[in-house]
Amino acid sequence: MTLEGKTAVVTGGGRDIGRAIALALAERGARIIVSYHASADGAQAVVQDIASRGGVAKAVHSNLTTQQGVNALVDAANALGGCVDILVNNAGGLVARKTMEQMDLNHWNAVMDLNLTSTFMVTKACLPLMSKGATIINLSSLAGRDGGGPGAIAYATAKGAIMTMTRGLAKELGPDIRVNALCPGMINTGFHDAFTSDTARKNVAAATPLKREGMAQEIGETVAFLASPASGFINGACIDTNGGVAFS
């Protein structure tokens, strides 16, 4: 699973799952470009952590819902060698829990832009820098399969679309570029600290066959596997990473 000589772009890489992904890829020898929007301190900490272990990393501030932000990310890739071997579309978020009755068009568009449109824009911009053997890993969610928790209709819809995009890209970009997705369930991150009650988290953990929440590092390790030649015949897959609480 060595990634020596590879350049990886990890969007939303300043915290939680994105941080774990960046570290897992760097541990296997990849150069890392960490994009961030609000997590400046976290992104710099990731870069420093990778550098302290002898790796190469660069943090880039980029609002990926804008073309300017996407261009900044591509400029960073060009400055680091002009190629993208691994693209991890991790940036996204719930924004807020809103039922259909509470939701307005602004909220809907904001969630779609953050999760879905940004993935389209980054992927389209990075493709000219990707060559045979490159990989794309998209972060979807269990919510994309089961509709999500209360007030997560927009988020779940966007994450479901990420799975469909993954399958379409896998067909379109093969045989040169493989495209897969992960569908994390309840992972112990700031996302659930902000948007999920302790009671709901305990109930989900109790209903999970492994009787716990997942860890961000476990998602990072799975992404590293999908980015490596060890997963060379996996393409167009949306892999459940939820401890067995739900099966696709």
Nutshell version of this structure?
With 248 residues, the protein is of the alpha/beta class.
Q: Report helical residue fraction.
A: 40-55%
* Main pleated-sheet profile: 7 strands, parallel
Helical/strand content category: alpha/beta
CATH superfamily: NAD(P)-binding Rossmann-like Domain
Total DSSP helices: 9
The largest beta-sheet arranges its strands as 3-2-1-4-5-6-7
**What is the strand tally?**
7
The span between the termini is 27 Å
Characterize the structure shown.
- By secondary structure, the protein is an alpha/beta fold.
- The chain has a single domain, classed as NAD(P)-binding Rossmann-like Domain (Rossmann fold).
- Helix content is 46%, strand content 14%.
- A 7-stranded parallel β-sheet has the order 3-2-1-4-5-6-7, sandwiched between helices.
Write the layout of secondary structure elements.
Blueprint: E1 7-10, H1 16-27, E2 31-36, H2 40-52, E3 57-61, H3 67-79, E4 86-89, H4 105-126, E5 135-139, H5 143-146, H6 153-173, E6 178-184, H7 190-195, H8 198-207, H9 216-227, E7 238-241
Parallel strand pairs: 1-2, 1-4, 2-3, 4-5, 5-6, 6-7
Helix pairs in contact: 1-2, 1-9, 3-4, 4-6
Describe this protein with a few key phrases.
7-stranded parallel sheet, Rossmann fold, 248 residues
